[in-house]
Every structure is written in C-alpha cells, then in structure tokens.
Amino acid sequence: MRIAVSGASGLIGSALVESLGKDGHETVRLVRRAPASAEEVRWDPVRGTVDVQGLAGCEAVVHLAGAGIADRRWTDARKRELRDSRVLGTSAIARAAAAMDTPPRVLLCGSAIGYYGDTGDSWVDEDSPLGDGFLAELCRDWEAAADPAREAGIRTVHARTGLVVSGEGGAWGRLFPIFKAGLGGRIGSGRQFWSFIALHDELAAMRHILTTDSLSGPVNLTAPDPLTNREVTAAMGRVLHRPTVAAVPAFALRAALGEFAGDVLGSQRVRPKRLLESGFAYAFPEIDQAIGAALRTR
C-alpha cells in the first residue's frame, strides 16, 4: 500500500513510517521544504497548498501534523498557532485528497481526547458530547476541517489519542528522567484520570483503522482501563524501582503552565468503544506493560 504521512518527523509519525516501511508499505512524507527525494511531497499548511500530483497512487493519507500542545506556555498568539497548525493543515489535506482524480480510500486525521474536556469520574466514549475549554473547541474545529474529504466520499477517521506512553518523546518522554531520578510523584490531587496508550498500541491501532472499512468518524485511541494519576505514579515507581514521594501541587503547576495546567489537572476517563467493537487487540493494555515496553525501546 502507498501511504502519505504528514507530521512524519514527530513521535507518532516517525514511528508509524518506520513500522509501515518494515512491513513493505511505500510511504511518502509531506514536507514544508523542497522535496529531497521521491519519497517526499511538498505542502504548505498555512497557504493551504499540497502537491496533489505527489499524492497520486496513495490509497491512504495519515495526517498527524500540528504544533506541540505542551511545548510552550499558552499565550493568545500560541493558541492561534496551535489552532491554525491543525485547522488550516487539515483543511489543506482534506481539500487536496478530495481533488485527486483517484482519491485515497481513507484519510486518518489526528485528534485528541481533549475533545471531551474535564469529565471527572464519568466515563466517556465516541458518542459523548463536546466538552468545555480551549482544547475541546480546538478538537471540534480540527475534526470539522476534514469535511471536504468526508463530503467527497473518502472514509475519514479522527484518531482521538490519549497520553502516549513512550520514552522517545511527548509528555511521557519528559516524565521518565524525572521518575528515574527519584523525583516523580503525583500531580495535584492525583485523583484525575489519565487515559493512556502504549506507543506500540497507538501504531497498531492506526494501522488497524487503515484496513478496517467499518471505522469512520471519531475513534478513541486509549487503553481500555484508564487509571488515576496517583495510580500511574505508583506504577512508574514500581516499574522503575524508584520512590514516588514527591508531588507537584496544583498552584505550582498553574504558575508554571498557566492555562494549560487546567488540562493537566483535569480528568478524562475515556473508553475506546469503537476500537474494541471492531476487534482490535491490545499488546500492552495494562500500565505496567506499557511502561515496560517504553523502557525497552529507549
């Protein structure tokens, strides 16, 4: 299968390209500079342009590009950048796919469980309503930007991803050095639910989506059983054999992160209903397994 991938330099995108390549699939990477090889296709998410000819023959497009949510403090300018990088980029990809003489069979777009907002102890799944806050509104607009592809009859899926357990990058990659140093601990009250997924299962779920025609619309990419931050903290200490007595009080997190602290302290108890109903099998569904798998790939 020939598959185009945007965001191929990121944690998930780079791992997905490597995984697909090992299994003999042909991948083309969307880049914002002049292509250096036939495996690259130029696009400009801000201007909304994509080299459609470079996508010819692609049966699937995986769109993962977007500015890092937790990379910087959320100023008004940063929030515009976060929104534009996702909404404008998704719109460009969707319109390009829809304009192709032979469109791809499936467009898999990144999204996030931030769609649900702070859900406390309540379970949510893909049928649950939109939550409150900046991230929820961002996810809503991000997903709606794919409408041109949907309207063109392309099977369009939104991968609402949770916290990816990986030692290679992302939020969890920043946690490992802290916990290894024995400085890890709960965040805030520790009662907030963290809906996690092992990087291995994230990639496997995406590949499952690409070949499962019954899946469309939002699909939660999380492990079946979310845990509280306190439980995750205990698991990190258990697997790494380190104490976890330190704690980050809520006021300190708000001082450091500003508005984004509300999402870190928020609770999201997400059920991956559609993934489970489609027959997807997790390799590392338990937190200790997911942490162990991340350590082995560091």
Produce a short descriptive summary:
The chain has 298 residues and is of the alpha/beta class. The chain has eleven helices and 16 strands.
How many distinct helices? 11
Summarize the helix and strand pattern as letters: EHEEEEHEEHHEEHEEEHEEHEHHEHH
Rg, alpha carbons: 19 Å
Second CATH tier, the architecture? 3-Layer(aba) Sandwich
What structural class do helix, strand and pairing data support?
Answer: alpha/beta
Strand content: 15-25%
Note the gap between the termini.
29 Å
Most strands sheet:
8 strands, mixed
Shape: globular
* Percent range of helical residues: 25-40%
Across the major sheet, the strand order is 4-3-2-1-5-6-8-13
| The level-1 CATH class | Alpha Beta
The beta-strand count equals 16
CATH fold description: Rossmann fold
CATH superfamily: NAD(P)-binding Rossmann-like Domain
When the domains are counted, the total is 1
Could you list the spans in which at least 5 consecutive residues all have pLDDT below 50? none
Task: Give average pLDDT, whole number.
Answer: 93
Please describe the topology of this protein.
Layout: E1 2-6, H1 11-22, E2 26-31, E3 40-44, E4 49-50, E5 60-63, H2 76-99, E6 106-112, E7 123-124, H3 134-144, H4 147-151, E8 155-161, E9 163-165, H5 170-180, E10 185-187, E11 193-194, E12 196-198, H6 199-211, E13 217-221, E14 227-228, H7 229-240, E15 246-248, H8 250-257, H9 261-265, E16 269-270, H10 273-277, H11 287-296
